[in-house]
């Protein structure tokens, strides 16, 4: 995964197009440096993924809807559910990874019980965040 182009970057925040050479997505960047094209992307995260469903179609889908996305991809890693105690309650999460071609999308939400690694799932997310390989 690498930066294809910078759409808008204002010092610390901006929008960049990330690609694997075939598929591409628009991501929000919150980085101390402006990423130059071809910079390696180390992380893509789905912000508040919703309506995660197992699907029968083994097809990769990327549909942008006013900066939000409908995505469909293959479960590469189904994260184990963990609970983190916070001062105001508990946060339940699981780090799962969904592949769309060579793009790896991280979800911090438990996948449905009927989903296993190798299955295809679809979901909505209101934004994709990314981080880059940092140069010293």
Biggest β-sheet: count, sense, barrel? 6 strands, antiparallel
Mean pLDDT: 87
- Based on DSSP secondary structure assignment, what is the total number of beta strands? 13
Specify the overall morphology: globular
Strand content: over 45%
Describe the structure.
- With 136 residues, the protein is an all-beta fold.
- It is built from no helices and 13 strands.
- Strands 5, 6, 7, 10, 11 and 12 form a six-stranded antiparallel beta sheet that branches. A five-stranded mixed beta sheet has the order 1-2-3-13-4, with no helix packed on it. Strands 8-9 form a two-stranded antiparallel sheet.
- β10 and β11 form a beta hairpin.
What are the salient characteristics of this protein?
136 residues; mainly beta; six-stranded antiparallel sheet; five-stranded mixed sheet; 13 strands; globular
Q: Which secondary structure elements does this structure contain, and how are they paired or packed?
A:
Elements: E1 2-10, E2 13-19, E3 24-30, E4 41-47, E5 50-55, E6 61-65, E7 68-77, E8 82-86, E9 89-93, E10 96-100, E11 103-107, E12 120-125, E13 127-132
Parallel strand pairs: 3-13
Antiparallel strand pairs: 1-2, 2-3, 4-13, 5-12, 6-7, 7-10, 7-12, 8-9, 10-11
């Amino acid at each position: 995964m690498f930066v294809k182009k910078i759409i808008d970057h204002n010092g610390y925040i901006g929008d960049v197009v990330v690609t694997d050479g075939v598929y591409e997505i628009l991501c929000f960047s919150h980085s101390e440096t402006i990423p130059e094209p071809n910079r390696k992307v180390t992380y893509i995260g789905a912000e508040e993924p919703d309506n995660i469903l197992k699907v029968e179609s083994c097809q990769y889908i990327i549909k942008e809807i006013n900066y939000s996305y409908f995505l469909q991809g293959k479960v590469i890693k189904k994260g184990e559910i963990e609970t983190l105690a916070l001062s105001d309650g508990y946060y339940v999460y699981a780090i799962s990874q969904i592949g769309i071609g060579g793009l790896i999308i991280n979800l911090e939400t438990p996948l449905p019980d009927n989903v296993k690694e190798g299955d295809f799932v679809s979901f909505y997310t209101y934004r994709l965040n990314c981080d880059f390989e940092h140069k010293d």
